[in-house]
Amino acid sequence: MEPTSELADAIYRERVLRARATPPAQKLLDGPRLFDQECRIMANEIRDQFPNADEKQVQEILRLRLALIRRLEDSELYRTEIQKPIPPL
Predict the structure, then answer these.
(1) In a structure prediction context, what are the per-residue pLDDT tens digits for the chain, which is 89 residues long?
(2) Alpha helices per DSSP H over the chain
(3) How far apart are CA 8 and CA 86, in angstroms?
(4) Are the beta carbons of 62 and 43 closer than 8 angstroms?
(5) CA-CA distances (angstroms) from residue 62 to 1, 31, 45, 59?
(6) What is the DSSP code (8-state) at residue 76?
(7) What's the gap between Cα 69 and its chain centre?
(8) Distance CA 89, CA 86 (A)
């Protein structure tokens, strides 16, 4: 195995272990926080792409993009998550 691959596997394993150790209540709260954070990032990218758009237009484009992501995920033609097996402990 290459050192880079070993490092990537070690980092991934650490993330899995950290996720497993996170209390369920914290995991429940993390979902909405991460979604809000991603929406802010997407809105900033929309503002960069459409500098003349007002806030209402930015929010409408964001809503359309989220709807597109949902349709793509529902169709299973596109997956946003990485499908990597969890390494053994």
Answers:
(1) 566 888 988 999 999 999 899 999 998 999 899 999 999 999 999 999 999 999 999 999 999 999 998 888 888 766 655 555 655 55
(2) 3-21, 24-49, 55-75
(3) 13
(4) yes
(5) 42, 18, 10, 5
(6) T
(7) 12
(8) 9
